[in-house]
Structures are given as structure tokens and as C-alpha cells.
Amino acid sequence: MSRVAEFEELRPLLFAISYRILGSVSEAEDAVQETWLRYERSATTPTSTKAFLSAVVTRISIDVLRSARVRREQYVGQWLPEPLITDTYSDPARSAELADSVSTAALLLLERLSPLERAVFVLREVFAFDFPEIASVVDRSEAACRQLAVRARRHMDAGRPRFETDRKQRNALAVRFFRALREGDLDGLRALLAADVRMTADTAGRGPNWVKGVFGVERVARTLASVAPLVIGVGVTEELRVMNGDIGAVYRDRSGKVVGTVTVDGVDGRIQQIHTLLNPDKLRHLGPVGDAAAVVREALRTR
Asked: Which residues are paired to 238 by β-bridges?
């Protein structure tokens, strides 16, 4: 098999590793491309191409994450991962675990880890690499990798919200939520929201005033029930998609350009977190991007 064919066969795995480390589709794609360039230039014929390429993409992703963390500390408002519509890596025996590992909730928890902890956690807990392999990838001893894994797991367990674990129930809840949202159904939204519901938006400082968060059933329900009919009234359409492993929505303006996405997390049959992504830089991989702020302004003028 040629190097090109070997690489293309492993590309879905390499992207899957990098995306979970970085939380960014564009950065993960760049990391995979850089992995190919290094592999193409290498005179080495690895014993295991999978192990070699996994190590390269992980090291590149760690370096990118170290740089990205500085930018994220200066980020305006809520930071959210770039939405992942299609995870091309497939392992039928572990499909549920793989899907859970790209959920918005999981990726936000991973942000709390150091780059090394995050890489070790992803390789061990998501992709079941053994510790000798991980030690080789991150250039640490096996003992150090075990300590990193334990520390990462402790942080993840301590911060993990109590979200719905059954995927069918999660998706059914999301579908009911988006139906009530489309219809501007205030009572329906109230019935679906948890008492401590929180809605935040990632706009990078270029969006509406809920960037700092809207909290509580009444405020969230009224905000959603008032805004949704207005934006639909100016031609915004909703497209339900599997996004980061769960049902989410992509919103497009009247010309078909992407203006935002929404994902939700639920527990005990109620929505607890609503994540709205309006930062155009994080939507470009979904297609041509529109101006969400302009859509909102137009919608408000029609009130």
C-alpha cells in the first residue's frame, strides 16, 4: 500500500484524535495536514503506521493547544468548541463512547485540563491506547502518564454535570425543545427547562446581549419565545442535525448562509444548558457564513 493510501485510511482516526484534543474543526484539519507533510518528508518506514501517525498528530495538537490556550484566556465571553457535524472515524463496538467524547459538555470539561492531561485522557479513555504507546507519544515515562491519566480523570469526574445518559432520551428531549423554540411556545419551553437552566452564546464579542448568559426558567423561556419567532419571520430556517453526537440545530439566513448553531444538554427530562454559537469564524466549515448580528437587528426592527 502506498503512503498516500495508508494515510488516507488513517485520516479519520487522526482527525478524531486531534479534534478531541483541540475542540476545533479547522485546527484539527490543519494538524492532520501537517501530519501528512511530515510523513511525506520522513525517510523512516515505521513499524506501525497507525502508531507513528497517531503520535505525530497528537504532538502537533498539543503544541497547537498550548498556543490556543493563551488566546482562549483572552477570549471575549463564552468559548464553545467548533460544531462537529460528521465524525468520520467509526468503531461500532465503541460508537456510544466516541459520540459522548465529542459532546459539547465533554469538550468544555476537557478545556479544564492541561494540554498533556488532555492528550493522555483522549488517547487512553477515548481511543484505548495502552500506557507504553501513550508514553512514546507524549515523551513521558509510563508512570508519569498513569499519573496524568488519574489526574485528568479526577478533574473530569469532579466537573462532570449530571446530564442525560440515554442518547434516545437526550435526542427526544432536544427535538421537543427545538419544536417549542420554532413555534415560540412559551409554556412549552417553560415545561422543558430545568429550574437552573443556563443559556450562553459564543459570539467572540460580535453578537447579541446574552453573551454573558441568561439564567433561570422564566428569563430563558421568555428570551427564546420572543426572539425565535422574530428571526424566523425574517427568513431564518432551522436544520436539525446530529451535532457533536447529539441532536442540534443549524440556522441559516434567507440566502442559505449559516448564522449560528444551537446545542442543548439535558437531565431528568429537562434542558439544563443551551449553547448558542454565533462566532462566524467557528462556522465557516459548515458552509458560507452570514451575519448573525445583522439578522438579529433586522428581526428586532420588525417587532
From this structure: 251
Q: Which of the residue ranges 72-76, 175-179, 283-287 would you say has the lowest mean pLDDT?
A: 72-76
**How many angstroms separate the CA atoms of 241 and 205, rounded?**
26
Q: For every residue of 221-253, which 3-state class applies, written as one string?
A: HHHHHHHHHHHHHCCCEEEEEEECCEEEEEEEC
CA distance 58 to 35: 9
The residue assigned the cell 424566523 is 232
Burial bucket for residue 228 (CB in 10 Å: 0-12, 13-18, 19+): buried
Q: How far apart are alpha carbons 245 and 128 in whole angstroms?
A: 19
Block residue for cell numbers 479534534: 19
Q: Residue 227: which of 286, 298, 161, 285 has the closest Cα? A: 298
- Helices marked H in the chain: 3-22, 25-41, 49-73, 95-100, 104-110, 115-121, 131-138, 142-159, 167-183, 186-192, 217-233, 292-301
Q: Return d(Cα 258, Cα 254) in angstroms, integer.
A: 10
Domains of the chain: 1-76 (1.10.1740.10), 167-301 (3.10.450.50)
Four-residue CA torsion sign, 209, 213, 218, 224: positive
Residue 163 has pLDDT above 70, yes or no: no
Query: Region 101-130: what's the mean pLDDT?
Result: 94
Q: How far is CA 155 from CA 65, 158, 160, 217, 259, in A?
A: 18, 5, 8, 29, 34
Parallel/antiparallel/unpaired status of strands 237-243 and 270-277: unpaired
Is there a contact between 77 and 201 (Cβ–Cβ < 8 Å)?
yes
If you search the block for the grid coordinates 449530571, which residue do you land on? 162
